[in-house]
Amino acid sequence: MAKRIITVSRQFGSGGRSIAKLAAQNLGYTYYDKELIKRVAEETHFDPDYIEENGEYAPGRTAFSFSPVFSGSAHYMGGMSAYDFLWVVQRNVILELADKEPCVIVGRCADFILRDRDDVLNAFIYAPMDFRADRIVRLYGESDKKPEERLKNKDSRRAVNYKHFTGREWGVCSNYDIALNSASIGVEECADIIVRLARGE
Amino acid sequence: MAKRIITVSRQFGSGGRSIAKLAAQNLGYTYYDKELIKRVAEETHFDPDYIEENGEYAPGRTAFSFSPVFSGSAHYMGGMSAYDFLWVVQRNVILELADKEPCVIVGRCADFILRDRDDVLNAFIYAPMDFRADRIVRLYGESDKKPEERLKNKDSRRAVNYKHFTGREWGVCSNYDIALNSASIGVEECADIIVRLARGE
């Protein structure tokens, strides 16, 4: 059966975004990544940088220590923390987009949020640490000082965020229809496999 | 790059064996499952049923309680337990088969044993519990009394065996090049994806 919606969850630096974009182009589906953040920004009035960082990652140690949201001293948005408020709005935007048109959605627990639909293909993209470290230094212009530490921090914060809102372990096969190692399979071949599955070929 | 060896690890009842067999047929590769057990039986003089059960599963509670091998009271095979001796022979047979000819090997930690080769594609096949429970009752003629318990027991003993000999967690994406949910993707499509990847298409 053809799939109308593709969710792409990915380890940081695995090339998951490139794979998602390529699959969307080849399928003629709308690609939601920055555009999703823009929509959430319109609804929440949060800064897009805040959404980009907190819509998918648990707050870092600094944010936990100093933000009034996480120190327990502040209540706003009707008693909801900014972090939880962002989740609610982001979830609603994802549900609306999935209703609206065939699309590819990157990250943001979309696999969990859309779990009750039967026209969704959930993909997970991962790669070994050395492949990802090389990639973030070379392509994203990240500092080449300890890229492995940055990757571990990103993975861990993504896992905490996913667990917090879904109750599931992030990156465990059983959450997905397919999981692909982009280092051994290659970015273009990963996109091709997703496209064929989405088309029901 | 084309892959000469395919390893297929699988959750019990997921259809991994059918997928491996189909992929081997389509690729023209030798399929090693029962034949592997036969070879190991020739080398070890163990009963094939013992190999089938203990070459991939940690011993069940009964075996731990009553077998002299696990009670610590017996030393044989040069101080090696039967369980460890089976591992050593099984490992050597897998290394020899991989050297000999293009093949598909089901289970038995072959992904780990062949990790130093660069012509191997490692696939993991999984499926939700209800799909597997229905499958083992319908196709394998298993009792329909508590099939979920039997599946959990099998999964857990496979994970313990894998951890014991490889130090890795069984079924975690990062051990494999590709992980496929056979319930949502379908047995034939899973085999097709593996065939295309093996051919480097």
Could you please describe the fold and organization of this structure?
- The structure is a homodimer of 201-residue chains.
- The first copy, chain A, has 201 residues and is of the alpha/beta class.
- The first copy, chain A, has eleven helices and five strands; from the N terminus they run E-H-E-H-H-H-H-H-E-H-E-H-H-E-H-H.
- A five-stranded parallel beta sheet of chain A has the order 2-3-1-4-5, with helices on both faces.
- In chain A, helix 1 crosses helix 11 and helix 2 crosses helix 6.
- About 7% of the residues of chain A have low confidence.
- Strand 5 of chain A pairs antiparallel with strand 5 of chain B.
Coarse morphology of chain A: globular
Oligomer: homodimer
* Overall pLDDT level of chain A: 86
Q: What's the number of helices of chain A?
A: 11
Q: Which ranges of chain A are low-confidence, i.e. pLDDT below 50, for 5 or more consecutive residues?
A: 61-75
Spatial order of the strands forming the largest sheet of chain A: 2-3-1-4-5
Strand residue content of chain A: 5-15%
Order of helices and strands of chain A: EHEHHHHHEHEHHEHH
Compute the CA-based radius of gyration of chain A: 17 Å
**Greatest interface and its participating residue counts:** A-B, 19 and 19 residues
Helicity level of chain A? 40-55%
By DSSP, the count of extended strands of chain A is 5
Main sheet characteristics of chain A = 5 strands, parallel
The end-to-end span of chain A amounts to 8 Å
Structural class of chain A: alpha/beta
